[in-house]
Write the structure tokens for this entry.
Amino acid sequence: MGIPFLLDEQAYRMGLAKWVSIDYGKSPHILWSGRTSSGKTVAAKICLARTILLAPPELQPVEVTVLDPKEDVDFSFLEGLPRFYAGDKAPEGFSAFFNGYLDRKEKRDTTTNLKILFVDEFASLVNLIEEKKEREAVQKRLALLLMLSRSRHFSVQLATQQPSAQIFGPSGSASREQFGTVCLLGDSGSETQQMLFDGDSRERMKEYGSIGGRGVGWLSINGGIAQPVRVPIVGNMDKLNKVIYDNLAR
């Protein structure tokens, strides 16, 4: 079952509301990218909240962990809750999530619900770790999660302005390619487009021209040609935040 999380931009321009969905059984890992104020954090929150509410029974209860190494205001409403790790606590949260994966892999945990790790600006998490060996260990664990955790119902969702291979470590390009769902919001430079999309997608983007401002961008699922998408308008951000808050408070 797919979770509708973004709007098809071409349909939107014709006055139609057509949803684009993510199937966690096929492409559980999401990479959000875009410049500051491009709308990627709002888009990520919508995806988290809709997954919490709409995931099928076999994936319930959805369990979200949020890492906020920047300590930004976007997730300050989660302060003090379990599974929320801000600032220099973010590496601890990553380790806790990875250990949860190991518990399920080694059958110490026999549950099958969906567990989601969301990191708001992954580059900031990497930069928090001064020790090179420790930083490379985190990058290696991320690579393992991306490659091996799908069948165990784990999802890694990262937001970052610059998704360069360097932030993912020695296996950077391979790790980046493990994200089945890739979304780039806002107008961006050709360098970022080249990092995220294949030649056919970039050619389509070039033909399409400027995608627009905040909350509009390009989405590729499972390596398919990128399509223009739009972040739904949030009429009540407090209500959206409460869905995420209640999940972590549970």
